[in-house]
Amino acid sequence: MTDTPAAPQPAPWPDKPLAVLVIGAGFSGLAMAIRCRQSGIDDLFVVEKADAVGGTWHENTYPGAACDIPAHLYALSFAPKSDWTRTFAGQPEIAAYLRELVARFDLAKHIALSTAVTGAVWDGGRSLWRVETDRGPLEARVLVSGMGALHYPAVPAIPGLHTFLGPLFHTAAWDHGVPLKARRVGVIGTGASAIQVVPAIAPEVERLVLFQRTPPWVMPRNDRPIGPRMQALFRRLPPVRRLLREIQFRVREARAALGFTRVSGLTRLAEAASRHHLRRQIADPALREKLTPPYRLGCKRVLISDEFYPALTRPNVTLEAGPIRAVTPDGVTMQDGRHHPLDVLVLATGFDTTASLARVPVVGRDGLILARAWGERVAAHRGVAVAGFPNFFMLLGPNTGLGHNSVVLMIEAQVEYVLACLAEMKTRNLAAIEPSPEAQARYLADLERRLAGSIWQQGGCASWYQDAAGRNIALWPGTVLAYQRAMRVPDWGEFVLTPA
Ligand code: NAP
Question: What residues are in contact with ligand 1 under a 6 Å CB criterion?
Answer without folding.
Answer: 66-68, 150, 156, 158, 171, 188-194, 211, 213-214, 301, 324, 348-351, 464
